[in-house]
């Protein structure tokens, strides 16, 4: 079943965060992922959620999504994301 990793990212160092983006994209593709949303304008319609930067990545399954985020190929990029941003991530199965 298709699954999505959804990240809510507050970038604290935009200049160095560019290095993260450059490293992350090839690993997403390597694991069969596809960016659905990558930092577009977000508008709150209900509640008090005010995300800074939303990223949605589609994978063929939750297992594949988790394999990517925990992969050795993504580990260097992930370390940069943790260094230059505060983020929250979930994986959710689609329909």
Description:
With 95 residues, this protein is of the alpha+beta class. The chain has a single domain (3-42, 50-93), classed as Alpha-Beta Plaits (2-Layer Sandwich), CATH 3.30.70. 40% of the residues lie in helices and 32% in strands. It has 3 helices and 4 strands, in the order βαββααβ. Strands 2-3-1-4 form a 4-stranded antiparallel β-sheet. α1 (14-30) packs antiparallel against α3. The longest helix is centred in the first third of the chain and has 17 residues, at 14-30. The protein starts with a strand and ends with a strand. 17% of the residues are buried. The mean pLDDT is 96.
β-strand amount: 25-35%
Quickly give the CATH architecture.
2-Layer Sandwich
Measured between the Cα atoms of the first and last residue, the distance is 7 Å
The global form is globular
